[in-house]
C-alpha cells in the first residue's frame, strides 16, 4: 500500500465528532464530512483517517453502537467517493470489526492493542495495516521516557504479530500529547529517531496539539505554522506518515523536506 522509501505520506484527519479539541462539530454531518475529505484529497492527502470519538484530554467515551452509527455511513461514502486508503481511528474491537467489514483499509489504535486485547485478533483476521500508538493513563515514568516508550511499542508489535498481523503491516506512533507533559512531549520529539531501532515505519501526530499551543500561546486553529515545524523535524528524524488537519501546508513542507533529504523531487 505504501512505499516509504519514496516519500512522506500525509494522513488527513476527518473528525466526525461534536467535541474534538480542534475541529469538533466542523464536519459532523455526512455531507460536510465527505466534502472535507474530497478537499483533503485534492490538496494532496494520501490517507483519510476517520474518527468517531474524540480522544482529547477528558474526552467523553461513547458506546460502540453510537460510534459505529457515526463512522460506518462515512466509511461507505468515502469508499465510493475517493480513491485513497481510508483509516479508522478507534481502540474498540466492535467498531474496528464493523469498519473492516465495510471496506476500511487500515486501523489506527491509540492504545497500541493494549487497551483491549481483542483488537489484535480482529485486525489479525483481516491482516489489515495498523498504526500502534504509545499511550498511558498518567504522565509518570519510572525511567527514561524513550526506553519505556520503545518497550511499550515492542509489546504492541508482539501482540499484533501473535494475532496474525504481518510485521510489514505495522506502523508505530510515539503518541505525542498522550500520557505526556509538555516537557515529555518535547523530549520525545527531540529523540524521535530512537524509535527507528524497532525497524518499523513511524507516524507522527502533532497537528494543532497543546504542545504547540503552549509554546506559541495560540488556540488550535492558529497552530498551523507550529505544526509544520514539527512535521519537518519529524521527517528529518525518520517519520514516514504525518497525521494532520491542515493538508495543504503539510504536503508542501513534506515535499521540500523530502526533496532535500532524499535527494530527489517528486511531483
UniProtKB/TrEMBL annotation:
PROSITE patterns recorded: DHPS_1, DHPS_2, PTERIN_BINDING
Domain Pterin-binding intervals: 8-255
Pathway field: Cofactor biosynthesis; tetrahydrofolate biosynthesis; 7,8-dihydrofolate from 2-amino-4-hydroxy-6-hydroxymethyl-7,8-dihydropteridine diphosphate and 4-aminobenzoate: step 1/2
Cofactor(s) named in the record: Mg(2+)
GO biological process: folic acid biosynthetic process; tetrahydrofolate biosynthetic process
Single GO MF descriptor: dihydropteroate synthase activity
Coiled coil ranges: none
Main enzyme class: transferase
InterPro entries tied to this protein: DHP_synth-like (IPR045031), DHP_synth_dom (IPR006390), Dihydropteroate_synth-like_sf (IPR011005), Pterin-binding_dom (IPR000489)
Record field: catalytic activity: (7,8-dihydropterin-6-yl)methyl diphosphate + 4-aminobenzoate = 7,8-dihydropteroate + diphosphate
EC assignment: 2.5.1.15
One Pfam family cited in the UniProt record for this chain: Pterin_bind
Keywords: Folate biosynthesis, Magnesium, Metal-binding, Transferase
SUPFAM superfamilies recorded: Dihydropteroate synthetase-like
GO CC entries: cytosol
Family: Belongs to the DHPS family.
Function: Catalyzes the condensation of para-aminobenzoate (pABA) with 6-hydroxymethyl-7,8-dihydropterin diphosphate (DHPt-PP) to form 7,8-dihydropteroate (H2Pte), the immediate precursor of folate derivatives.
Protein name: Dihydropteroate synthase
Organism of provenance: Alkalibaculum sporogenes
Taxonomy of the source species: Bacteria, Bacillati, Bacillota, Clostridia, Eubacteriales
Gene that encodes it: folP
